Amino acid sequence: MEDELASIAAAAGAAMAGARAATATSGPGLSLMAETISMLGMAELGVVLTIWARAGPSTGLATRTAQQDLFYSLFIGHGEFPKIVLASGDIEEAFYDAIKTANWADKYQVPVIHLVDKDLSNTFVMMPLPDPYSVRIERPRPVVFQEEKNANRYELTEDGLPVRLLPGVSKAVYHVVSLEHDPEGDPDEDAEMVKKMYDKRMRKIDLMLKEIPEEDKVRWYGPRDAEVAIVSWGTTKPQILAALEELPGVGFLQLRLLAPFPAEEVKRYLAGKKTLFIEGNYMGQSALLVRMYTGIEADAVAVKYNGRPVTADEVVEAFKRFKAGEKRIELDWDL
C-alpha cells in the first residue's frame, strides 16, 4: 500500500474477509499502525505484523539495528486487549515463526507482532531444508448459516474465542465494529454487557498461555543446574550461544513469547540463579519486563545502543565484568 496507515487497514479488511493477513514495518511506521491495532483488538481480527526494529527514536539510524521497540510492541494501542508478541532469535526461527504467528492470528483472532530486527533482515545463512511434514497450516473452520439470519459473531464463549463467520460463505448477518458491542456486534455501553465482553476477550490470555508450547515461550541452553543464567531475547541468541563455548557452566534463557508473558516458566528456569541480562537498548527492557511479571530482579544488565549488534566477544566481556561486580555494563566495541 502507499503507507503504513493504509497497509494495516488493508490487512484488517483482508482478515475480516477471511484471508490470512500480514504486513510489516519498522521505525516510525509502527507508530502509524497503533490506532488500527487497537481496532483489531476490539473487532477481534487476526493480523500478523512483522517489525524489523531499527535504532530510534524517530527515523533514528535508519539502516542500523536495535532492540529498542520491545516495550512499544508489548503496549502499543490504546485500551487493554490481548495480543501476541513473539521474538525470533535467528533466520531459521524466523522462518517457522512466520507460520506459527499466522496460525495463532487465525485461531485466537488477535493482533500478533512478530518481533525481529534490522540485523536479522540483513543476514544471509544456510539453514536445513524444511521438512514439509513439520509445517502445519492450522485454520479454524468458519460457522456456516444456510439461511439469512442474525448471528452472534461475538458470542460469550467460555474460552473467549469468537465464532468465526466469513462473508461469502454464510448467510449470517452480523456486525464487525470498533465500538464496544453486544454479542451480535451492535454498539452497547450497558455496564454489565461491557464487563462481559471485556472479560470474554481477556480470557484469551489464559487460553494462549495454556495452549502455546513451552518451546515457543522460552528456551534453555546449557547446564540446567547452572548458577548463572544469561537472559536475552531476539537476535542476540547466536552470539550468546557462541560465547557459551568460552563460559562453561553458564546457562542461557532465551525469551521467545513476550506477550502474553510466560511468568511461570521464566520463574521456574531462573529460580535460585544469578542473572545477567544482555540486550540492544539503553533501558534493559527485558530485565524490567521480567521484574514486572515475576518479581525477579536482574543481578546485572549489559546493554548496547549504538546501532550495532552485540558480538560474542562482548558477551564474554559482559560476563567477566558481571563477575567483577558491575551492575550496569555498557557495550561499545564499535566506537
* Structural class label: alpha/beta
Distance, first to last CA? 38 Å
Please tally the β strands and state the result: 14
The CATH class name of the largest domain reads: Alpha Beta
Q: Which percent range fits the helix content?
A: 25-40%
Specify the CATH architecture of the largest domain.
Answer: 3-Layer(aba) Sandwich
Assign the CATH superfamily of the largest domain: Thiamin diphosphate (ThDP)-binding fold, Pyr/PP domains
Rg is 21 Å
Q: Main beta sheet: strand number and arrangement?
A: 6 strands, mixed
**Poorly predicted regions:** none
SSE topology:
Blueprint: H1 4-16, E1 22-25, H2 28-32, H3 34-43, E2 48-55, E3 61-65, H4 70-75, E4 84-87, H5 91-108, E5 112-117, H6 118-121, E6 149-150, E7 172-173, H7 191-211, E8 218-221, E9 228-233, H8 237-244, E10 250-255, E11 257-259, H9 263-270, E12 274-279, H10 285-294, E13 300-303, H11 312-323, E14 328-330
Helix pairs in contact: 8-11
List keywords for this structure.
335 residues, 11 helices, alpha/beta, Rossmann fold
In brief:
The chain has helices spanning 4-16, 28-32, 34-43, 70-75, 91-108, 118-121, 191-211, 237-244, 263-270, 285-294, 312-323, and strands at 22-25, 48-55, 61-65, 84-87, 112-117, 149-150, 172-173, 218-221, 228-233, 250-255, 257-259, 274-279, 300-303, 328-330.
